[in-house]
Amino acid sequence: MNADIAVIGLAVMGQNLILNMNDNGFKVVAYNRTQEKVSTFLDGPAKGTNIIGATSLRDMVDKLATPRKVMLMVRAGAVVDDFIQQLLPLLEAGDIIIDGGNSNYPDTNRRVVELKAHGIRYVGAGVSGGEEGARFGPSIMPGGDAQAWPHVKPIFQGIAAKTDSGEACCDWVGADGAGHFVKMVHNGIEYGDMQLISEAYHFMKVGLGMDHQHMQQTFAQWNSTELDSYLVEITADILGYLEEDGSPLLEKILDSAGQKGTGKWTGINALDMGIPLTLITESVFSRCLSALKDEREAAAELFQNTPKAVDGDVAEWVDALRQALLASKIISYAQGFMLMRQASDESNWDLNYGNVALMWRGGCIIRSAFLGNIRDAYANDPELRFLGSDPYFKDILDNCQSAWRKVAAKAIEVGIPMPCMNAAITFLDGYTTARLPANMLQAQRDYFGAHTYERIDRERGEFFHTNWTGTGGDTASTTYDV
Ligand code: 6PG
């Protein structure tokens, strides 16, 4: 047979990707472990298309043109390894396996190497955009064995979202698990964006006493500013959604956030790599804190810390909030790109940051006009270390700073938790401070543990120890950093 690609896993993402591939002229074989799902799909959404089903993995493989391309759209973790093991005896050298799930990138690193030893080219592809993205144009971030790219490129770039100027939101990311790494950071940024928006909503509702219609209109209006993005757009929709009795559904939803792990992995990576990814990490902790619902209710009862209303002109506060959200978002992306640069340096991935921004420009959950500006920033200076130093973003940070500080300070004063907005401004203050109090830290470390310090009046790399009390020894401990 001569099908272009097989997709394993007919959950929502798998089905929609298959339909999208079919729309774009590719012949797809659909397979699912539970056979019934295949027939339900073929008799349902896939009816009247060129999509064909497979009754077994053998049958599926036999229906593919060579080199065979098999895409896994299954749950991350052991299920991926199970399918790889089952596929191995059925495939031959040169064939390609693609994992389109949210796999943790060290798993992808490992699989690329293991499969290479069998002559199989392995691709870990981050796919973002949810159900609608998968159906009509996701953002796809493929990485792994570069030899696979020419074979999957037409399919992936064919089905991916396109920017206004027609560029596909999909390009080769890099070797090993680079694609899944970039998708992980995407999700971390998604966590940050969502938390920042939620903090703005909280300030509007609790601090400013705005009703849902007013909040809905505000977010809708923000969506025609630099904040133009999918997440701001859906926030307006969510605020406007009413139940049959005319009350907003949002207020009936339990305030305990779930998470599938990609934000947590991003935070863990930042700690491992020594990158101050404060905002995204705070957003993960915010979800953890929200999940302590019973404890929070008990503490609320005990402390009676009801936030106070924010005085002043509501319209002025709303505009200050818009500026605080925009500036915080710049810091979040700046931190995310710092993490990617560190990973790229450590793993020799040679990531192209402008391309990453382009891939996120459309199709994915964090898609926004803003990413077009990030792309321009990296096009102007591929070596840019801090996004906020780019003239466009620096200008925004400078202009928004006073309103941003006002919002952050007011939130603390009245008792509205805004961990991510506060983390953002604190990061900017730290990053733009030439002399931090880490001299004190170093002195303390040397005082109690002879951990040594460097001096500002001597060359970097020369380490000193002081016998601070006169009773300690002169022997320094080894100087090393993790
Ligand atoms: C995407 C989303 C997608 C998924 C998240 C949800 O890019 O399409 O990020 O991958 O919705 O994994 O993550 P949480 O369940 O952790 O919020």
Helix-strand layout with pairing:
Blueprint: E1 5-8, H1 12-23, E2 28-31, H2 35-43, E3 52-53, H3 57-62, E4 69-72, H4 78-87, E5 96-99, H5 105-116, E6 121-128, H6 130-136, E7 139-144, H7 149-159, H8 178-207, H9 212-222, H10 230-240, H11 262-273, H12 278-291, H13 293-303, H14 314-347, H15 353-361, H16 370-380, H17 391-414, H18 419-431, H19 438-449
Parallel strand pairs: 1-2, 1-4, 2-3, 4-5, 5-6
Antiparallel strand pairs: 6-7
Bound molecules: 6-phosphogluconic acid.
6-phosphogluconic acid binds at residues 102, 128-130, 187, 190, 258-260, 262-263, 364-365.
Number of helices: 19
Poorly predicted regions are none
Apparent shape: globular
Helix content: 40-55%
Outline the structure in words.
This protein is α/β, with parallel strands linked by helices and 482 residues long. It is built from 19 helices and seven strands. It has helices spanning 12-23, 35-43, 57-62, 78-87, 105-116, 130-136, 149-159, 178-207, 212-222, 230-240, 262-273, 278-291, 293-303, 314-347, 353-361, 370-380, 391-414, 419-431, 438-449, and strands spanning 5-8, 28-31, 52-53, 69-72, 96-99, 121-128, 139-144. A seven-stranded mixed β-sheet has the order 3-2-1-4-5-6-7, sandwiched between helices. Strand 5, helix 5 (105-116) and strand 6 (121-128) form a beta-alpha-beta unit. Helix 9 (212-222) packs antiparallel against helix 10 (230-240), helix 11 (262-273) packs across helix 12 (278-291) and helix 15 (353-361) packs antiparallel against helix 16. The protein is globular and about 80 Å long. The N and C termini lie far apart (54 Å). The mean pLDDT is 97. Bound molecules: 6-phosphogluconic acid.
